Amino acid sequence: MFQEEKRIELCDCDYKGKVRNEYFFIRFGEIATYDAYKTNIYNQNMLMHYGWVVSKQTLKLAQPIYYDDLITLTTHIRKPSHVIFPRYYEIKKENHIIGECASIWTLMDLEKRKIIKPMQAGIQVPDSIPMEFEPETLFPLDDVEYVKSHQVLYSDVDINGHFNNTRYIRLACDLIPFPLFNDHFISKISINYKKELPPQSFLDLYMCRDHDFFHIEGKYDQEVCFITEMRITKI
């Protein structure tokens, strides 16, 4: 288990003072890394050779979080199975849980771009309790419509050599009509990562909407790279 306390800063917020949605996933990735070092499921010898890669996540928020709020983020490893490694997160404010996230991770050989078992990297993942809830599995829809394209450039690429998964959240949020953010917040985000997106490639973005529900897909060479579903709630 790893826990950190964070004061929300201006750079974390949108024009209404609400935390930008990718912020949570950036922090989740950071504290997962700290916890991985702490529990010996990641070490310096693995750097540039092996990496933990998230495959799907579901975040639920009970309320928006604003500038200058003090929150506590906690992560726990959950019961693993073969090459599937669950991880759970909590967001607390004033000692109340206001957010939860369930995620599934795999260990990848970064040179061969293949999923491996921990023993192949010389590590052992500890056993734990089952996950509190499962991240959603998402599927492509037939009625999505093309919206725009995005080229993967320098600032999009992370140490694993592909499009950083938090960037998908930012791109998806930018497709939601701007005025909705005046009096709504995103109360649920599910995202599945289907295929790596290489540098300098073009990602085509598609969307469909049903009232407060948004389904967004990103495709590269007609193959789905990610799917996310978001639900907005009036403040």
Question: What's a quick, concise take on this entry?
Answer:
It is built from 2 helices and 11 strands, in the order βαββββββαββββ.
List the helices and strands and how they pair.
Blueprint: E1 2-7, H1 21-38, E2 50-61, E3 70-77, E4 85-93, E5 96-109, E6 114-116, E7 145-151, H2 165-173, E8 184-193, E9 202-210, E10 213-220, E11 223-234
Antiparallel strand pairs: 1-3, 2-5, 2-8, 3-4, 4-5, 5-6, 7-9, 8-11, 9-10, 10-11
What characteristics describe this protein?
single chain, 235 residues, mainly beta, Thiol Ester Dehydrase, Chain A, 11% helix, 42% strand
Structural description of this entry:
There is one protein chain. 11% of the residues lie in helices and 42% in strands. The chain is mainly beta and 235 residues long. It folds into two domains: 1-134, Roll (Thiol Ester Dehydrase, Chain A); 135-234, Thiol Ester Dehydrase, Chain A. Strands 1, 2, 3, 4, 5, 6, 7, 8, 9, 10 and 11 form an eleven-stranded antiparallel beta sheet that branches. Strand 10 and strand 11 form a beta hairpin. The mean pLDDT is 95.
Q: Helical residue percent?
A: 10-25%
Number of strands: 11
* Count of separate DSSP helical elements: 2
Average pLDDT taken over every residue: 95
**Any guess at the CATH architecture of the largest domain?**
Roll
Query: What's the alpha carbon Rg, rounded to whole Å?
Result: 18 Å
Which class of secondary structure composition applies to the elements? Answer: mainly beta
For the termini, the CA-CA separation is 32 Å
**CATH homologous superfamily heading of the largest domain:** Hotdog Thioesterase
Number of domain units: 2
CATH class of the largest domain: Alpha Beta
Write the CATH fold name of the largest domain. Thiol Ester Dehydrase, Chain A
SSE string, helices as H and strands as E: EHEEEEEEHEEEE
**Unreliable residue runs:** none
